[in-house]
Specification:
alpha+beta; Glutaredoxin; five-stranded mixed beta sheet; four-stranded mixed beta sheet; 26 helices; 11% strand
């Protein structure tokens, strides 16, 4: 039996390399083998830190009897959903025709042409209630393929046609009004658990995308975001020893977490905590939370060569046995002699972009000097390694492991999240090179949309490439605009394009952001819990737009050092769509690179000088903190 998974980039696939199952990685070879053998396909999808994926692996995929059934009657494909989100999305959509219990591990049975005709999630080794044993499922599907193949093929074709028809629908609309955004926020308030915080019953997720949207609106919505974040930080969802939030809680009071810690969750919650530190009354709890989250990312999640791991496992080995959450239930002394749960060291472009942006925002806020310096260094290193390893010939890759690139194509979320992170790093560091790279990524997405025809459907951004296997099977679906734990690709690109416009790169970027958000505005305002990040971008497109640039003298130790420090602190305190602290030389570099916000920005009379603008209409430059504070508009500060 071939060991095809041993050299995989995905740690999840490597973890299955020694199974008795004759696994194939995702690719055309598996489907060709199924056609040659005239057998159906099992597409098994999961990820390295998924608890129930581990359970099914131990119970079924390591069982020689189960493996023998799989090898005899099927071709089996193992997929890491984080490496191949397009594959995961396509088969999740297909699986929804067969089960309402969607999740991972996802088990999909398909024809040799990749058409799904049956699906489920976790199947136990023995029947439990209405859930059949996995061996029984395998036997039933194999018998159906032998005796009722025509029905299965017809069902698979029907599901594929329905998905393609839904995907080809043209989208259009207009940006929501301020009143409609407020109404979306009020509908979220109605979903709040008033006793424990969060939204809805168990299981409870931190939904940072939704909290980010609420934080954009002053008054009750922002208070709801603050209340939710503060309660989560004080609950069992947050690890008080190492920092970091767990993926979700299985109980309404945030107890019994699902213990894996995900990079995108914690990056977004860091960015939210940084922003919350500017809200009235939040400094006392938001600032320490931001520091804890920044340290978690720069220590626990940091990879030796730069960049950040995708996730940390929920399971560890304690007393010779695997224990979900056992490590996290230990205090600091108890953890000292125990190996921590493993990291999924796969480097993902988009998720690293979220971390880069969040750490850059934290460094810019300057809440703690040593932590801020470490955050900026880690963000720079991550940006450098992602660009070096993943931007090949101008085309972005999605993933790598130990410097070896995956064949998986980058998605739209990779483009948008990385571009947004690089722009925020440029603002925090004063280094224009990151902004130039970000603009190149967004420009490519705009050009690809024109070339593919997506722009004609009102979608201004397209990913650089498609999954060739999905494309060959006719199963490529557009990026899902709905959002779960992270912004969609469409929203991420709109966010980056809006930032480019705010930096003065051109109004065409703002227009692209508006078109993208208008295409989902109706469904987003109707279902705000699933479109939080999109609503956040829509709110920023509607809001007054503060651009704040501080130009400080190059040399340290200037006579006005105290005045500069106070001015910088006031600039950091204020809420702004764009904030940058640059030297005169850096301002010139930004302006020369085509970012008009920095044109003619100088340190007047050799003193630190603040320029406060609203949509490029600027007040007279000021030198002292009091004068800058006086320029802040109550309508903007909310």
């Amino acid at each position: 039996m071939a060991k095809r998974l041993q050299g995989a980039v995905s740690p999840y696939l490597r973890g299955h390399a020694d199974n008795p199952v004759d696994w194939y990685p995702w690719g055309p070879e598996a489907f060709a083998a199924a056609r040659e053998r005239d057998v159906p396909v099992i597409v098994s999808i999961g990820y390295a830190t998924c608890h129930w994926c581990h359970v099914m692996a131990r119970q079924s995929f390591s069982d020689p009897a189960i493996a023998a059934l799989m090898n005899r009657d099927f071709v089996a494909i193992k997929v890491d959903r984080e490496e191949h989100p397009g594959v995961d999305g396509s088969y999740l959509a297909a699986a929804s025709a067969f089960t309402r219990e969607l999740g991972w591990p996802l088990t999909v049975f398909t024809t040799p042409e990749g058409r799904a005709f049956y699906a489920g999630t976790y199947f136990p080794p023995e029947a439990v209630g209405a859930t059949p044993a996995f061996g029984e499922v395998l036997a039933a599907v194999a018998e159906a393929w032998r005796s009722r193949r025509g029905e299965l093929v017809a069902m698979g074709d029907e599901v594929a046609r329905a998905l393609q028809a839904a995907a080809s629908a043209t989208t259009s609309g207009a940006l929501p009004s301020a009143a409609e955004l407020e109404a979306a926020a009020h509908s979220l308030e109605a979903e709040e658990d008033r006793e424990y915080g969060g939204f809805g019953p168990a299981p409870k997720f931190p939904v940072p995308t939704v909290l980010g949207f609420l934080g954009e609106l002053p008054g009750a919505p922002r208070a709801l975001a603050a209340r939710t974040l503060q309660r989560m930080a004080a609950s069992p969802l947050f690890d008080p020893v190492d920092g970091g939030f767990f993926r979700y809680a299985t109980r309404r009071d945030w107890s019994e977490p699902h213990y894996e810690r995900m990079l995108p969750d914690n990056a977004q919650l860091l960015a939210l905590a940084v922003e919350a530190s500017r809200w009235d009354g939040a400094l006392g709890w938001a600032s320490p939370l931001a520091v804890d989250l920044a340290r978690f990312l720069t220590t626990t999640m940091a990879l030796p060569g730069g960049g950040f791991a995708s996730a940390q496992d929920s399971e560890s080995v304690l007393d010779g046995r695997r224990d979900e959450g056992g490590y996290y239930r230990l205090d600091a002394d108890g953890r000292a002699g125990v190996s921590p749960p493993a990291l999924d060291e796969k480097l993902l472009s988009g998720w690293n972009g979220l971390a880069i942006g969040a750490l850059a925002a934290f460094a810019d806020r300057g809440l703690e000097e040593s932590a801020a310096a470490a955050a900026l260094t880690a963000a720079r290193e991550a940006a450098a390694v992602v660009i070096d390893r993943h931007l090949v010939g101008g085309v972005l890759r999605r993933a790598s492991l130990d410097g070896v690139g995956s064949a998986a194509p980058a998605t739209l979320e990779d483009v948008g999240m990385l571009a947004g992170g690089l722009l925020r790093l440029a603002l925090a560091s004063g280094e224009v090179v990151w902004a130039v790279r970000a603009r190149e990524l967004v420009d490519r997405a705009l050009a690809d949309a024109e070339a593919s025809g997506e722009a004609g459907r009102g979608i201004p951004f397209s990913p650089p490439t498609q999954d060739e296997t999905l494309d060959g099977l006719g199963l490529v679906l557009p990026d899902d605009p709905a959002e779960g734990a992270a912004p969609s690709g469409l929203t991420s690109c709109a966010d980056a394009a809006l930032l480019l416009a705010q930096l003065g790169a051109g109004e065409r970027y703002r227009e692209a952001a508006e078109r993208a958000m208008a295409s989902v505005s109706a469904i987003a305002t109707d279902r705000p819990i699933a479109f939080g990040a999109a609503l956040g971008v829509m709110a920023r497109l509607r809001a007054p737009e503060v651009q704040l640039v501080v130009v400080a003298p190059d040399a340290p130790g200037q006579p006005d050092r105290g005045e500069s420090a106070a001015l910088l602190e006031e600039a950091r305190r204020q809420r702004a769509a764009v904030r940058a602290v640059v030297s005169p030389a850096q301002a010139e570099e930004f302006a020369a690179a085509g970012f008009a916000l920095f044109a003619a920005r100088e340190a007047l009379a050799g003193r630190a000088t603040a320029y406060r603008c609203e949509r490029f209409v600027c007040a007279l430059p000021v030198h002292d903190a009091g004068a800058l504070a006086a320029l802040a508009s109550p309508t903007i500060e909310g």
